[in-house]
Amino acid sequence: MHQVRVLFLGGGPMMPATQPMEMLKFDYFSRYFSGDIITSIRNPKHAAIKTMGRFGYHPFVVTGNTIVRNMKTIWIYIRKARELYRRNGKYDVIIAPNPLLTGIIALITGRIIGARVIIEVNGNFESAFKYGRMGETDQSPIESIKEAFSKVMLPVVLE
Asked: Does the predicted model carry a pTM greater than 0.85?
């Protein structure tokens, strides 16, 4: 039977020693899949970890202002993904933990290496406007309009 290979982009713990639940996630996935994790980290000392279960751990540190850091991040993710693809073989799926920067990178990388892409969308978009900006539970008129609009648009967007 074919072993499914997964590439996680940005889905690894930034600080592994302080994020045990993130570590458990990869132990669980290792029962069924193998692959690699490419993620940014905050401190170079976390680069000492080489594997999490059956996943290779490939962290990197990026510095600079937001624009420079994002450009470097895009370049590093794509370069590392291509390098791992050439070295370890085809990935069946690429998983990104959010639809923002890593989601876009996952789409580009998936096109380049020919893998399917899963982009996680976090949050409860159906009740996104249930609470006010200051945490109050009573909706303002504009929040009521936003909630009504989101309920109408949700089925259209998800199709």
From this structure: no
